[in-house]
Amino acid sequence: MSVPGAPTAKEKKYDRQLRLWGAGGQEALETAHILLINATAAGSETLKNLVLPGIGRFTIIDNAVVTDEDLGTNFFLDDSSIGLSRAQKTCELLCELNPEVQGSFVNDTIENILKSNPEKLKEYTTVIATGDIPTATLLSLDAALYPLSTPLFVVKCVGFTMSCRVALSEHPIVETHPASTVDLRLFNPFPELIALVDEKAGLMDDKEKMTTHEHGHLPYVLILLQALKEWKSTHDNAPPSNYSQKNEFKSLLRSKMWNADEENFEEAIAAVLPHFNPPSIPGDTRAVFQDKKCDELSKESSHFWIIAQAIKQFSEKNDGLLPLPGALPDMKAESKDYIRLQNIYKAKARADLAAVVQIVSDLLTELGVRADKIPESEVETFCKHAGYIKLIRGRSLNDEYEKSPKAQIISSDLSDPTSLIHYYLGLRAYEAYISDEKNTRRIAPGAEDSTVDADTEKLKKHVTELLDKLSITYSPELLEGTEKAIGEIVRAGGGELHNISSLTGGIVAQEIIKVITRQYIPMNNTVVFDGISSRTQVYQF
């Protein structure tokens, strides 16, 4: 017999992740369809970390059969798999991890799919490309996915080295999960809050009308607002604006303490620096408001842009203020006083939400769209996080390869022998080696002992060709770090180390979950990892 209000079996199963991204994020995961190109160790580990939290479906495209080399690196294959389809065996074993996830496989190459049935790519919400894929194929894949706004993750894992490049077209994030969304409106208190301050804190200097207990349990928000009123009366109606004045204001607060151990006054003093800032629209939010997509709405505009325009109009009508989130931090206070204060903030947040919902409805009507197309819950989430939204417009892989990977980034890091830019260059050279038309079998550099030295020189040549193409000046001294990176890459002979692949799977899956749930801020756009020094660096190429 189930207990009313008790968590369901599903909620128990996914309890920890629901605390991270909530029911909305979980729903997004469960409707996702992930494509993995090549069931390499890194690819399998990435899928494992997506199957366990409950993605809806996954498909593996791979025409390889399982070999002895696969058994040495891929945890999801065993002796009974040798000679069988790598895509099929990996799919079967991954599905065992979570019966709620549907898995399928295609014994083919991505090249054939792109030629014969490119429309099939529209089925997938995210694509992961792993293994030794030629540059031309990667660019064709990117050209097919980028216009669809389908994220492409290109993962390279060779020896102790790993890189992941994500190609995102437009990626708005509402729930960025900042450390705090508290807005106390200390500099712009609304009437209901002012009335409560006058009622409860107006007597905090009068020992005849307020008991010691009452004084020690005044919510610190009310203490701050009452003290701020007193400060403004002697400072031309202006709040403390610099560090010196804020310290002076803290002294004012200390002077109002009746006892040295009044915790609520200590909370008020601690809140001065983080909360005494003039109201302003943060840069990322302002950038969204100034974007032409925010002003030039159409029937095809996404919910994000319509709500953004509504909040922009709300802000313009309310002296540049964003909707009140309504959150209130814990504080020393009597329960009844805290609840009353909390309800005042919540009521104001609801009023602001209602105003934004009305603007959204008006905008939808103007666009000739059903006025209730956007659910109020979605508008509410946006209102709560309006000051923390972020818009990422990434570069396509074609932009990086055909135009420029932002040469100044490479040039500035080249002189640092410890920079991981050397591994980026080494992996680009590795890809160029695989892509060489003469390398018909796609043999990795260093895979054959007899060609190690020659392969090393080929990779060095590919690096210098890339630097020349980018008009980057270099010298033998500047390339010492790159030569060391190439040495490590060639030494691996194209092989994967399971511990590095496992870590790679964790990194890549984490970023994919951010993108699918549209929560937290994903990397933009390349991460490089060196397992020897255990370091990562993120670049925006």
UniProtKB/TrEMBL annotation:
Cellular component annotations (GO), alphabetically ordered: cytoplasm
UniProt keyword terms in alphabetical order: Ubl conjugation pathway
THIF-type NAD/FAD binding fold domain location: 14-536
Keyword Repressor on entry: no
Function: Regulatory subunit of the dimeric UBA3-ULA1 E1 enzyme.
BP-aspect Gene Ontology terms: protein neddylation
Source taxonomy: Eukaryota, Fungi, Dikarya, Ascomycota, Pezizomycotina
Top-rank taxon: Eukaryota
Pathway(s) the chain acts in: Protein modification; protein neddylation
A Pfam family matched in the record: ThiF
Protein name as it appears in the record: NEDD8-activating enzyme E1 regulatory subunit
Family: Belongs to the ubiquitin-activating E1 family. ULA1 subfamily.
GO molecular function terms noted in the UniProt entry: NEDD8 activating enzyme activity
SUPFAM superfamilies assigned to the protein according to its UniProt record, in alphabetical order: Activating enzymes of the ubiquitin-like proteins (SSF69572)
